[in-house]
């Protein structure tokens, strides 16, 4: 259990007893279990955008407190609905993104009320002006699958837990006070007038409440359905359409069913349920669905039929203990907390999307059936880099295959016939660039994840890579680059398409499609068409072939030459051929100098306040956003792995902490956390699809991967300390390892990777060209 910043208070008698039992020979106390090491409050302040509420691993329901719902133009810092320092809680809603730079969701807000019903949230600085309540910060508890808080204005103790498709509330009301629940179906995170297109709340004769809402938000036309039941009988209720402002009042007479005619439809709906004075807590079960109300009822009955709050909490705890137990970490306490919390954040999404009966709503807004568990919430521009590669190490094939098959199934029913770009609840948002479902599929398939149809996967990849209307792809295919006078962010799109194309070539090679392999190996080299040898930067070109001027490598503007970055970050994005990039930069020494210039850049006079995602700056390295995430490892490709080791320590020391503002930028559905996990272990997947991890340096004394195949892979460290930041030597299964990479197959085979650390850099280890990681030009492609 985590209560951030809490003090453990012992009575004097207990403390004296413990002191009397202690001896010099006593072993140090065991560190917290992986479950107890997690602190869900990390990332809830600053720019992390995480939420502290209850969620099961990859759960459809994310039941969490909402401290505010801001208008779209004001709400960036409330992307998860929660800010650690906010003084009030509006209520508890059932859907949230973890760490995104954009948001939506916040569906089905419930607020427990012990007095007069107030139909609006009111102002945070005006207590009593609405249904929101102040809360006791010291009473806040968060652990995987559980959240609790004491609401001071209402006097209610609120507890939340969640299963895969359900959320369960437990509210303890003040004695002799009425117990009431307000359901506000109007707001959502990143709210704005007119977002709700239509909605319905229906009261069934057996007391079940169901409803529907369609919103036109980040994902247009998203449909949300719910089913809700109470553990106590309702003695009265009101349904309101706030646009019409005419309430429907109902009640239940003893021994009789609820009024079966009770429902309300409109765009601004609310409901209030009165239970009178009750003995014991009130439990509320909620299940959700994107299919229909009947699906939500079936989801509810699949997990929550008995109102067993403690049973659901225990079951979800067991799921988290199993998931977190995939990694055993021995490290300093703060690092260990940060790492287990990072692993926890990496296991929240992609989230289950399909109903318990296999039905799911696709990007065509139609309902389909699947014989696997459909997932959604794919932030692919972020997560192809490290999040999905991490899942191939810590999750079983069945989960990874479900995710890959979900991407393929979405492509097969897409109105455009292409793979998801950034999707949630099965709907496409068209956010970010590239077709990065492609490397996610390729990386999993090439690593041998079972249960994926390779031909269907390749067909889906080709459909995305040849859809000419998408993001300048037609010009890219014809000209070899995306021209900036026809398509914004053209420099970024060119280099990202080229990498995605390389992964298609590797899939085609594995499947024996030589024609496709040759075509996409050629396209993988298109990054060269946007690299300006004179300046040493990736730059945007016009359709006539000239580079766009004027050129400022530090400029960051939305819709300009680059996507959420500038030339300093994007000039390193050639993960498929870093050796060729080093050559284009002028060789090893010139590349190292260029990397140092990026990290050491003096940002005085630069103002990036207009760019929301630019956080965690170290010079022109921007750890708070993904284009920089592999850049510290680029030194390895230039024969200077000790420079990578020094930069990784600089990043770790400045960008991660075990406190609410402990993430420098958006966690982006686990990507920033996955970077931390890999880097702490001592290696990173610079080029997903290559089957290699580039060795950096470890930050733990010992990490053990309990692999899905039943084997164990140990990363051990000798001499680790702040004063010993450099790798002196590496062995794999007792044999010297002089190369600067390790293969996925070597990890899957089990064994031990051992590091010896020291105070001074080893200027010889891993420096020669044969010892460097994969590059397509080095393999004759």
From TrEMBL:
Keyword NADP: no
Coiled-coil intervals: none
Gene Ontology biological process: carbohydrate metabolic process; glycoprotein catabolic process
Glycosyl hydrolase family 92 N-terminal domain mapped to chain residues: 38-289
Source organism superkingdom: Bacteria
Leader peptide range in chain numbering: 1-24
This protein's record includes keyword Membrane: no
Start and end residues of each Glycosyl hydrolase family domain: 296-758
InterPro entries, sorted: 6-hairpin_glycosidase_sf (IPR008928), GH-type_carb-bd (IPR014718), GH92_a_mannosidase_put (IPR005887), GH92_N (IPR041371), Glyco_hydro_92 (IPR012939), PNGase (IPR050883)
Transmembrane segments: none
Molecular function per GO: carbohydrate binding; peptide-N4-(N-acetyl-beta-glucosaminyl)asparagine amidase activity
Keywords assigned: Signal
Gene Ontology cellular component annotations, sorted alphabetically: cytosol
Cross-referenced PROSITE patterns: PROKAR_LIPOPROTEIN
Protein name: Putative alpha-1,2-mannosidase
Organism: Brevundimonas lenta
